[in-house]
Write a structure and sequence with these properties.
This protein is α/β, with parallel strands linked by helices and 217 residues long. It has one domain: Aminopeptidase (3-Layer(aba) Sandwich), CATH 3.40.630. It is built from 6 helices and 6 strands, in the order βαβαββααββαα. Strands 2-1-3-6-4-5 form a 6-stranded mixed sheet. Bound molecules: zinc ion.
Length: 217
């Protein structure tokens, strides 16, 4: 039984992908920026109800650059994790499923080089430790996300993947969740279903909880 006055001293940054001038994938109906915001607001509400402190890079339809997102996340100096929310898309409408990304130190280095950062001193033990924690966070969140989603319908598990991405540069364990393909008609119908959205959110909350239980004991 859960104690009534349990205080969870954890702080999480939620990054709702895209926004404002950038709709992300925009097929018919709900665009990616709208989907990410709906899910992010639900996730924030659930996490706050459990006692987490939640910071959001955006909680309305605002345009944000990648620099602004990572800058904001890094300013939340006591944040313990970042979760970036997206809806996926593919030119092949048959492609579907959920996948979760984290970044390795090697990908970090490659991305910095692509951005013309000359020094690579960022690839230190701290960065390696962050990557390890990010992988663990990705595994934990993805596992429970899939579990909850599959209770609802037999969605495809596209697994945890290594992926470069500036939003994953923050100074905290960071992951990006592609919650499903808005370009797939069947999965789109799920993603706009509020009960399915709630299932995705409870999976993420449960996965985050397990990550914190085992990582900072
Ligand atoms: Zn996106």
């Amino acid at each position: 039984m859960q104690k009534k006055n349990t205080i969870i001293d954890r702080s999480i940054v939620i990054d709702c992908g895209h926004g404002g001038d950038d709709p992300g994938f925009n097929g018919q109906g709900l665009s990616e920026k709208e989907f990410a915001l709906i899910l992010g607001l639900k996730l924030a509400q659930q996490l706050r109800a459990q006692g987490y402190t939640v910071h959001m890079t955006r909680d309305d339809d605002k345009t944000l650059s990648l620099d602004e997102r990572t800058g904001y996340a890094n300013k939340c100096s006591h944040a313990d994790a970042l979760i970036s929310l997206h809806g996926n898309a593919n030119i092949n409408p048959a492609v579907c499923g959920i996948e979760t990304y984290f970044m390795t130190p090697e990908l970090f280095k490659t991305t910095l080089n692509l951005m013309n950062h000359e020094d690579t001193h960022h690839i230190d033990s701290h960065r390696k430790e962050l990557a390890k924690k990010s992988e663990k966070l990705a595994m934990s969140v993805h596992k429970d996300l899939i579990k909850e989603a599959q209770k609802f319908q037999n969605v495809v598990d596209r697994k945890v993947k290594k992926q470069p991405g500036q939003v994953l540069f923050g100074d905290m364990p960071s992951i990006l969740v592609e919650c499903g393909f808005l370009s797939n008609p069947e999965e789109y119908a799920l993603l706009v279903n509020t009960k399915y959205q709630d299932a995705l959110v409870s999976g993420m909350v449960s996965g985050l909880g397990k990550f914190f239980e085992t990582s900072f004991a």
